[in-house]
Structures are given as C-alpha cells and as structure tokens.
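Give me structure tokens for this 304-residue protein.
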Amino acid sequence: MRTAAAALTALSFVGVAALAGCGSGSSGDGVSRNASASSAPPSASPSRSPASASGWDPRPGSVAAVGDSITRGFDACSVLADCPEVSWATGSDAGVRSLAVRLLGASKAAERSWNHAVSGARMVQLPEQMALAAKERPDLVTVMMGANDACRGSVRLMTPVADFRASFEASMRQLRAGAPKAQVYVASVPDLKRLWSEGRQDESIRKVWSLGICPSMLADADDLGPAAVARRDAVRDRVVAYNEVLRDVCAKDRYCRYDGGAVFGFRFTGAQLSPWDWFHPSRDGQARLAEIAYRTVTAAEPPA
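Here you go.
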C-alpha cells in the first residue's frame, strides 16, 4: 500500500479538480462490460432459482449497475482513474468477486453484466443511467447513489432532500418504463462522518483530504470548533435523510430491495479505503460492498 505522503505527491502532480466530490466526473458514456472473466469459483450456482413467495428471485440471471464513482472503482487501482474491473457490482477481479460474479459465475458475468455508473454523478443524473440500464433488460439493477449529493463545496450546496426524492422516483419510473419487472437492489449511502472519524487524526490523510475531497465533510478535518462540528453533523443528517428516501421509495416498488442501512453502518477501515484518497473503497472495500449486496439479494426476506 502506498504511504500517505506518496499519495499526496501523486494527487498534487496530476491535479485535484476531479476530487471536489466523490469521483472523477469522467467523460464518455460510463459504460463498460466486464473485460475479463475471473477464475474464482462463485459462491452460488449461476442457474436461476424459483422466485420466493414475495416474487423476488434470489438468483437473477443478469445484472446492470448504475451509480457513481464507487461503482466505477474510482481510485481503487491507480490515482484519479476509474477501475471498473474491481467494481463491487459488475467487476471481474478475482479478489473482489463482484455481485455479478457471485450470482452468475465468472464467465456468464462477463457476458451478462453491464456497468452504467458514472464517476461524479449525482441523483439528478440517475434517470438517464436507469434508461440505459433498462435497455439491457436485466434481471437485476444495482443502485448506489447519493454520496456526491452530500459531498459538495458547502452544506448549502448539498442536494435538497425533496429534489433527491424527486430524482429517485423519476429514476424508478424510467426503469419501469423499459424493464417493468427488473429487480432493484438499492445500497444505502455510506456514513461520511464515520469516514472522517476514521482518518482525522492522521496528518498525512488530512493533507490529502484538504486537496478538495468531499469538502462539506472533510475540509479542515482537525477543526473541532462549534461551526465545524455543526457542519459535519448537518452532512451526516442529510445522508440519513437520503437513506430514508431510498428506503421509502424502494418500499413502494414490489421488485425493489433496500439494504436496510448495511452500507451506511459498515465500518470501513484503512485497508478498505483507497491508498490515494482515503475516501473511495479499495479492492478490499469493494469486496465488502459485494458481500453486503450478495447477502441482501439472495436472502429469503429483505432486511428489516
């Protein structure tokens, strides 16, 4: 793993405009099929299983992913770059064993999974991604979106909860217009304040964060004054509100499952965070996200 000092040097060299939020804001259509098949054995047979009494099929036969830089594997393989092969949702990396690989097996995942996530995306951009996902006619769509809505230049610039809800509802309508029976797995937004708490005492990490990574939460990370505390609490409260929206909207759709707050509650450690920005998940962090998704998708009943 690279040291914090090395990461700081690398980020300073290439520039940090892309790190104002949670992703690179990369150009292009953000779509990538799995480039290669992993040799790791899947944890379940890729064959379809009968749907449960609720209508949920725990063994979907294809997966389309939508979301932001986390689902693109940003900063997991190299500095300021997407690395979709390690994506928790559709990646082919043997160490991660993505949700698609766990459900379908490596060879079928390479043919039957699609990644439409875009680094830097916010919830307002999800309807467009959902339209692309619907064209694949997938059995399952994974959604991880919302961190960029909270990671803004200031608390004032965070996406209002009402707008976040309207965009997510529009996204679900967009999906249903093209894929009325596609199942949807919705991951909660990670707890950004816990991330701050994990790294705030390390001076080198604070220096990397000061380059512009999620400033609404991570700016002046060693400041414990009343204004800084209030700012971080406001960001966390907004993330909690976003997760309530994800839960509520998902609950209204028969074929949707929310993770019950599992990603929000997961305690990412240094080993599970990018060595370049101490914000995005590393390969190990991506693997943990894949595990959470697999448990939720294959469970007999949705999380409480």
